[in-house]
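pinned: reference chain
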Amino acid sequence: MTFRLARRDERESLRRMILEAFEPITWMKRADELFGPFNGLDWRARFSRRLDPLFDHGIVLVGEADNRTQAAALGSYDSASGTGVVDFLAVDPQWQGQGAGRAMLDGMLRHLAGLGATTATLECLAGNEAALTLYRADGWSEIATSIRFFRRLDGILKA
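pinned: its structure tokens
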């Protein structure tokens, strides 16, 4: 797999691939199942909005093989702390289970190291066994567990 920074004209095709890759695992879809869309925005719209700042100001790295985009990683780098962040790692569903995720992660870490990063961080949902297996096998250390809570605020403010 070869790696390069994404071109602006690839934004929408990358967005579609990332949404498709995350659909089976995202907590946002579960929130929709429990609460419905938030202010009319379904999980895809909300997830897409989370990608925009990274598309606009972050690092968007594309992994290609056979002239096809197989994976992408979105992240950022904080030069003050020397920390690279892998915000999203997505593999096109047709390439999942074939080593593309491992290759893409390695490509992003090499890119971050090239910028000066000396540490890197990422987050993973507890139920995403494929990603957890990859990160643990790749030498990542789990340092914290987070639980996401939701509550409707209908009726909180009373006249």
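why pinned: The first helix runs from residue 11 to 22. The chain has five helices and five strands.
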